[in-house]
Amino acid sequence: MRKSEAKELIKQARDAWDAEEWLRAGELYERVLAHFPDLKASAAWWYDAALAHKFLRNWAKAYELGREAAARSPRGEGDPAYWNLGIAATIQRDWATARDAWSGFGIELPDGEGQIDARLGYACVRLDTGGEREVVWIERLCPTRGRVVSVPVTGGRRYGEIVVHDGEPKGERVVEGVSCPVFDELLLFEESELPTLEVTVAAGEKADLEALLELFTGHGFGAEPASSVRMLCACCSEGTHEQERAVGAGTQQVSLAAPEEEARRLLERWAGETAIGRSWSGLGAVG
What we know:
This protein is α+β, with helices and mostly antiparallel strands and 287 residues long. The chain has helices spanning 3-18, 22-33, 42-55, 59-71, 80-91, 95-105, 206-218, 234-237, 260-272, and strands spanning 122-129, 132-140, 145-148, 162-165, 172-175, 178-190, 196-203, 222-225, 240-242, 250-257, 278-285.
């Protein structure tokens, strides 16, 4: 291939990119890279080819091309080639490559081998299941994976599942003055076996409902009062919102993530801890 022909193909690739024709853009970049893998400009072409396949959710291809892009990128300077490789390698479960990619980006993780299960704080993820979108809280296990610690109201999603999310925040939630990013989900990485239940509870005081939530979370389960769920349009969801767990007295629905018999046992325990002011009814599975 002559350089003049390569120049024309790169132009076509960029035009396809602008038109969001990701597959065509990726294929055109690859045609050029087969002949010119190591030109000064090639690192950007490898990166764009890998990114095109990331947009297509073709993770095997994004991983393959991403390794080439990262190999031609400076280490420790926050180069996005390493971040995208970290995502693709995580999804491919190539933990050695993922660890090296995060290091190449400039992130320090605890020493170790195999699956990364660090504790990196909390963030939010916007779940997307066939058009339904819901923002939930996660405990971050690595730069791109998190365990869901909310009880989702979206059908088919569960407390405790592990998701892979993108690296670019799309909105933020502010809790007691602390800002937490909202990331878009890329895929469900590991399912949860905990079913979602609903129950109607009556709490005489705010502390009664707080005690119920703490009882379930203390046993590794989830509990989410209906009063803490806010409905936002897609545009507003990507903005900045103050977030609080609205816990109050009275009667309301609570979503639970626990085996039904275990949930029943904990509810009985909670109600029996005081003589008056606590009761529950209508425990049942959702969906």
